[in-house]
């Protein structure tokens, strides 16, 4: 038997010999091994068996043939294979059985997967080849490949292989269970493909890539794929059906043809089949149709199910597939090897191009695909400038044209206003709010002026256009402009009470929102209160509008600190909308979200999280996992986790949300920045104080710059930073910040406000840290008084933190008194 050094020498000579023409190999072998007959015999035997360019499956195929004729009893727990002891069987196939095992010699604790090859009659001549192949497999070192630990043959001639035990799920099942979007699925496949590429560089081809051989598990909150069964993936049944190994649906056509050699392009085909399934939920049929066409051929309920599993809608998913994935999958799945990608590297390059919003090479002449991918790469600039302006001007031009037509004028104008609404409502305010708004505001102003001039004969359509303009001005945070337009709509509705009843109510709804967003809380409250009365008088048709404005008013009251009243109104509004509207209606979902936020802040996080999970489910089905409405609900759920003190649970979701916001809107966007501020809280509460600091500072500075030092958001984020200062040991700096914040809060929010109470509690903590227990006691008592005023004396969840602070301060004060 060869020793370890000889095996290494054999491996090197074998690789060198296979690079030579067959006519030169014998001379090479004699020149290199003339002084070592055993080494020479083994090298000659390996070359004789090397009928497969992968250099892996020859001897193992012999074992498969034996396995097809032989059956073996299951190995009992405790059976030893080298230093490994079997615990229990975890899988079985034609090639053999797989057992969970551990080191029996106590060298270290590690669970492993031990594969026992069904080869009791394995020819002694084949044993060295099996060992050589296992050594070759063990050379592969890559994060996406399950590591080989050991191999051997026992006294009964049974070949065994020990590999890393992966406690994961097949890649397709993992993606579905975790509702991964199409992009996330492709990113995961790229990671697995990098492992395949590494194996090819080592001269190893897998030949049986399928979901069950790529297992995914979460490592540090991130999915990590692991490829298993390199070189020993065939089972006996498949081997009989497919001489080249593989699994039907995933194996290349050449693998199913007797006598046809396989190469790296067979794995390219299998990766293409995996991409196909991850994209549209099924392995490719013969003949292969594009994934988007396969999806479209499914019944509509199945389309919706598949799209929801990918955080999308059928139309959006089909569009994403047509924008590159179709072309990549079809090229990888070409029946003839020469027409496929030449290597896994080329396939991965096209997938990375698609992920970066570039047309894949497989798409050929890009045409409109190039335009669409350009827009995605540059969506910050394009979304709020060229695309919106062109669409808006085109919509207004169409409006003018329609009004000049003598026939069907009203119908044409209605269609045009609906088109205009769809164009502008599709603009994500999170994208547009951080851009230069001059051009878009100019277009909106022009739209309003032209509507007044050219739609004078159609007051209802003019009101629709004015509402569209006002909503988008509010989205751009131009609240004064929006309020002026909304007041003009109310005047127009008052002049045409019979025709513009709905537009008048809608204007009050948006007006109240504009007042709330611009911190004009009293005006917001009055507007919603008036709107509720008007909607109730309007009859049953507008009952939902009254409930919607009641839900919005509840939030205004909550921000003002009127928690009990806010809770009652929010609950009544949500219950009423739940009786009137379908479960996926947007008004009902919005009301559920507001109610959940009030519940969470008031201490009922369990009910809040239940509601938010339902909202997320519906928003994902309606719009996709990365739509602004879905992301907002996901963020609220993370906040509820923070309020429940589940900081470790909130951290990974906040990290993912922050990364998503940054990717979609840019790192300096308010959503990205403020989510990082929440992440800072999750980290600080887990003791990761230093890591949290930069997030707190960045969030505080961004909100002060954007909204002003006295704004509600600036006060909140500055207070969070002051708390971090204390956690970081900077008690004096924390006290100074809390005092400055208390002055602002008393002036802008009033003393009896829950935010003021939190600042008082923070001040008490900072003062106590400096040893001034008596002063800290005054601040803590005042904080508890305010909290009781706002929430009542029975809300233990809300009062818990301030009572904890008070107890700590009282203990310090008593200790100080006792010391005297």
TrEMBL record:
Keyword Flavoprotein in record: no
Protein kinase domain location: 84-355
Region annotated Disordered, chain positions: 243-263
Coiled-coil region(s): none
SUPFAM superfamilies: Protein kinase-like (PK-like), TPR-like
Residues noted as binding ATP in the record, renumbered to the chain: 115
Origin: domain of life: Bacteria
Transmembrane segments: 380-403
One Pfam family from the record: Pkinase
Alphabetical keyword list: ATP-binding, Kinase, Membrane, Nucleotide-binding, Serine/threonine-protein kinase, Transferase, Transmembrane, Transmembrane helix
GO molecular function: ATP binding; protein serine/threonine kinase activity
Protein name: Serine/threonine protein kinase
Organism this protein belongs to: Stenotrophomonas acidaminiphila
């Amino acid at each position: 038997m060869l020793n370890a050094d000889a095996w290494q020498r054999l491996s090197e000579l074998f690789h060198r010999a296979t690079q030579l023409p067959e006519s030169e190999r014998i001379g090479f072998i004699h020149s290199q091994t003339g002084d070592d007959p055993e080494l020479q015999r083994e090298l000659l035997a390996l070359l004789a068996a090397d009928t497969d360019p992968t250099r892996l499956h020859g001897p193992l195929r012999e074992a498969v043939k034996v396995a097809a004729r032989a059956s073996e009893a299951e190995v009992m727990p405790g059976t030893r294979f080298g230093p490994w002891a079997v615990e229990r069987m975890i899988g079985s196939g034609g090639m053999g059985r797989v057992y969970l095992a551990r080191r029996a010699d106590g060298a270290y604790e590690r669970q492993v997967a031990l594969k026992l090859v069904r080869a009791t009659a394995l020819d002694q001549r084949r044993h060295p080849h099996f060992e050589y192949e296992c050594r070759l497999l063990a050379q592969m070192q890559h994060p996406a490949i399950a590591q080989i630990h050991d191999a051997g043959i026992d006294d009964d001639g049974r070949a065994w292989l020990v590999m890393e035990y992966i406690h994961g799920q097949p890649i397709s099942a993992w993606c579905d269970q975790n509702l991964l979007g199409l992009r996330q699925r492709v990113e995961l496949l790229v990671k697995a493909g990098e492992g395949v590429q590494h194996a090819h560089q080592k001269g190893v081809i897998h030949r049986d890539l399928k979901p069950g051989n790529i297992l995914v598990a979460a490592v540090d909150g991130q999915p990590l794929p692991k490829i298993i069964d390199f070189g020993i993936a065939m089972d006996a049944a498949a081997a009989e059906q497919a001489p080249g190994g593989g699994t039907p649906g995933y194996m290349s056509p050449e693998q199913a043809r007797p006598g046809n050699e396989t190469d790296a392009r067979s794995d390219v085909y299998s990766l293409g089949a995996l991409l196909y399934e991850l994209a549209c939920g099924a392995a490719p049929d013969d003949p292969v149709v594009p994934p988007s066409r396969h999806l479209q051929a499914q019944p509509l309920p199945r389309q919706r199910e598949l799209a929801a599993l990918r955080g999308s809608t059928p139309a959006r998913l089909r569009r994403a597939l047509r924008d590159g994935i179709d072309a990549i999958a079809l090229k990888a799945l070409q029946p003839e090897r020469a027409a496929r990608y030449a290597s896994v590297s080329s396939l991965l390059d096209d997938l990375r191009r698609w992920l970066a919003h570039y047309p894949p090479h497989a798409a050929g002449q890009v045409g409109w695909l190039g335009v669409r991918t350009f827009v995605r790469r540059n969506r910050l600039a394009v979304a709020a400038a060229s695309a919106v302006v062109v669409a808006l001007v085109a919509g207004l031009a169409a409006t003018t044209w329609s009004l000049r037509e003598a026939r069907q004028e009203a119908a044409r104008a209605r269609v045009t206003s609906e088109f205009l609404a769809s164009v502008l409502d599709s603009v994500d305010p999170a994208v547009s709010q951080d851009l230069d708004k001059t051009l878009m505001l100019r277009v909106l102003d022009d739209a309003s002026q032209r509507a007044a001039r050219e739609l004078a004969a159609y007051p209802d359509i003019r009101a629709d256009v004015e509402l569209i303009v006002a909503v988008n001005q509010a989205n751009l945070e131009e609240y004064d402009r929006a309020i002026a337009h909304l007041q003009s709509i109310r005047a127009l509705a008052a002049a045409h009470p019979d025709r513009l009843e709905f537009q008048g109510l809608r204007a009050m709804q948006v007006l109240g929102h504009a007042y709330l967003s611009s911190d004009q809380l009293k005006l917001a409250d009055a507007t919603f209160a008036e709107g509720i009365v008007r909607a109730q008088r309007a009859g049953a048709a507008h009952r939902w509008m009254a409930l919607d404005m009641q839900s919005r008013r509840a939030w205004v009251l909550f921000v003002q600190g009127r928690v009990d009243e806010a809770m009652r109104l929010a609950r009544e509004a949500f219950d009423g909308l739940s009786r009137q509207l379908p479960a996926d209606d947007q008004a009902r979902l919005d009301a559920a979200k507001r109610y959940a936020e009030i519940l969470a802040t008031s201490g009922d996080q369990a009910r809040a999280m239940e509601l938010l999970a339902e909202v997320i489910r519906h928003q994902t089905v309606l719009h996709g996992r990365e739509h602004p409405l879905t992301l907002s609900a996901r963020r609220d759920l993370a906040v509820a986790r923070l309020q429940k003190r589940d900081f470790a649970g909130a951290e990974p979701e906040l990290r993912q949300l922050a990364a998503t916001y940054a990717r979609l809107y840019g790192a300096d966007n308010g959503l990205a920045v403020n989510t990082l501020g929440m992440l800072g809280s999750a980290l600080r509460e887990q003791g990761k104080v230093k890591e949290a600091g930069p997030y707190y500072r960045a969030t505080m500075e961004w909100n002060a710059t954007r909204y002003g030092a006295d704004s509600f958001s600036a006060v909140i984020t500055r207070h969070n930073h002051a708390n971090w200062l204390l956690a970081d040991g900077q008690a004096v700096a924390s006290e100074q910040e809390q005092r400055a914040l208390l002055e602002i809060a008393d002036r802008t929010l009033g003393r009896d406000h829950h935010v003021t109470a939190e600042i008082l509690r923070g001040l008490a903590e900072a003062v106590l840290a400096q040893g001034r227990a008596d002063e800290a006691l005054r601040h803590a008592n005042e904080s508890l008084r305010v909290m009781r005023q706002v929430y009542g004396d029975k809300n233990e969840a809300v009062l818990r933190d301030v009572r904890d602070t008070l107890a700590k301060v009282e203990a310090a004060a008593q200790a100080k008194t006792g010391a005297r």
